[in-house]
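Agenda item 2: S-adenosylmethionine complex prediction
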Amino acid sequence: MADRWVQDHQRDAWRRQAVAEGYRTRSAFKLKQIHNKFSLMLKGDVVLDVGCHPGGWTQVAAELVGEEGVVVGVDLEPTKPVEGARILVGDITDGETQSRVVESLGGRSINVVVSDISPDITGRWEMDQAIAMDLVAKVVDFSLPLLCPGGSFVTKVFQGYGIEELVAAMKPHFSKVKRFSPEASRNSSSEVYLVCVNHKPWVAGEQGPEVVTAMEKAFDDSSPEPVTEMAATGFRVVRKRHEEE
Ligand SMILES: C[S@@+](CC[C@H](N)C(=O)[O-])C[C@H]1O[C@@H](n2cnc3c(N)ncnc32)[C@H](O)[C@@H]1O
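Presented output:
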């Protein structure tokens, strides 16, 4: 009970600070804290903000990259305009939305991808985790080829199945892959951010089948039943088969 009170109180404090500083969400401070820790963005950078509604992260990114920078935000929900950003409405896993994102970049490669994407929660924890991890894998597949050498990739993940495999799949592509829990999200949920720094496309090459094997081992299932299509990285999410199924 006391823990719950402390969590609510902390969330309210971040919300009040967001209102006071003109940010649309308390999540804005999560991105600020990730940036402060990892020096993500520079003036003039190109940033893709995936799952941008209602725009808190987009506001922070636009501030950090300044007028010479480009921020493209995309979400299923319409987002009110953010000065200095181009906002798109669409499903990031959809080819047509992906083409519009590429068009918005105007031929420039991306310096930083930030994804705070969260699927709708069904309440079935295992299914929700599988859907969330699949969404992350699809964002990775789409955006990694657009990320410049030396670029960074940040995504929200929920603690649970598939995280170790995701970390292993990202490691060949980046010099550093770290889990980070910003102060603004501590004690509030199982969310954590995966921060991948210094994209090195010249080293990674093709993802082999080791990732799939690692996933199957992690899910400890002799005949895994995929709940989603395999993503091109070779990273896939499988659901544990239960006795009652
Ligand atoms: C936690 S909110 C993002 C908050 C945002 N970072 C901010 O500070 O304002 C997660 C967003 O992910 C979006 N989302 C979920 N699935 C998506 C998809 N397939 N394509 C695009 N956006 C998606 C949701 O609509 C939701 O607005």
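Discussion summary: The mean pLDDT is 84.
Owner for follow-up: CH.
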